[in-house]
């Protein structure tokens, strides 16, 4: 994982690959907890027996669960040592090319697409591709906006 000393040091690193996070197993418990938190209890996520006979052959993680895990992966991909704080500012583009079946392992792969000065710090656009172990297509690709303040 690249460690940057200050938010401004991101400016010179545009285009840099950030490596990958550790693998994370997607459990039915995590899916159920996300369903409870969001109120999205669609059977393809939480009804294990029915999902086994459904279009994916198993329960799948919510797309937004997969997306939310990019916040978990980001600190494994990038650190800014002398930032007073970092905040999630938003996303430019999100796609879900492939479902994540329960029991799958996923990880984030990052690339610093852009960095620009903002008042009090730097805004970084970081592409995070959520890979599924052994799959040819990713689960999610997002342009994640993070702000790092001096």
Protein described:
With 150 residues, the chain is α+β, with helices and mostly antiparallel strands. It has one domain (3-25, 61-149): Hotdog Thioesterase (Thiol Ester Dehydrase, Chain A, Roll), CATH 3.10.129. It contains five helices and eight strands. It has helices at residues 28-38, 43-46, 48-52, 63-68, 70-77; strands spanning 3-4, 17-20, 24-25, 79-80, 85-95, 105-118, 121-132, 140-149. The strands form two sheets. Strands 2, 3, 5, 6, 7 and 8 form a six-stranded antiparallel β-sheet that branches. The chain has a two-stranded parallel sheet with strand order 1-4. Strand 7 and strand 8 form a beta hairpin. The two termini are 21 Å apart.
Notable characteristics:
5 helices, Thiol Ester Dehydrase, Chain A, alpha+beta, 6-stranded antiparallel β-sheet, single chain, about 150 residues
Q: State the CATH topology.
A: Thiol Ester Dehydrase, Chain A
- SS-based class: alpha+beta
Model regions low in confidence, pLDDT < 50 over at least 5 residues: none
Overall number of strands: 8
Mean pLDDT: 97
Largest sheet: 6 strands, antiparallel
First-last Cα distance: 21 Å
Q: Give the helix proportion (percent range).
A: 10-25%
Radius of gyration: 17 Å
Number of domains: 1
């Amino acid at each position: 994982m690249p460690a940057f000393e200050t938010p401004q040091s991101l400016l010179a690193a545009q285009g840099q690959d950030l490596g990958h996070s550790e693998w994370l197993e997607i459990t039915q418990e995590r899916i159920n907890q996300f369903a409870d938190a969001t109120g999205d209890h669609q059977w393809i996520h939480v009804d294990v027996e029915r999902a086994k006979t459904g279009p994916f052959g198993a329960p799948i993680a919510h797309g937004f669960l997969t997306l939310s895990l990019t916040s978990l992966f980001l600190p494994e991909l990038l650190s800014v040592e002398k930032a007073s704080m970092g905040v999630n500012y938003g996303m430019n583009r999100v796609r879900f090319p492939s479902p994540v079946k329960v029991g799958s392992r996923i990880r984030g792969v990052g690339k610093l697409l852009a960095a620009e000065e903002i008042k009090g710090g730097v805004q970084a656009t970081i592409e995070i591709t959520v890979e599924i172990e052994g799959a040819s297509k990713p689960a999610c690709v997002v342009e994640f906006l993070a702000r790092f303040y001096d």
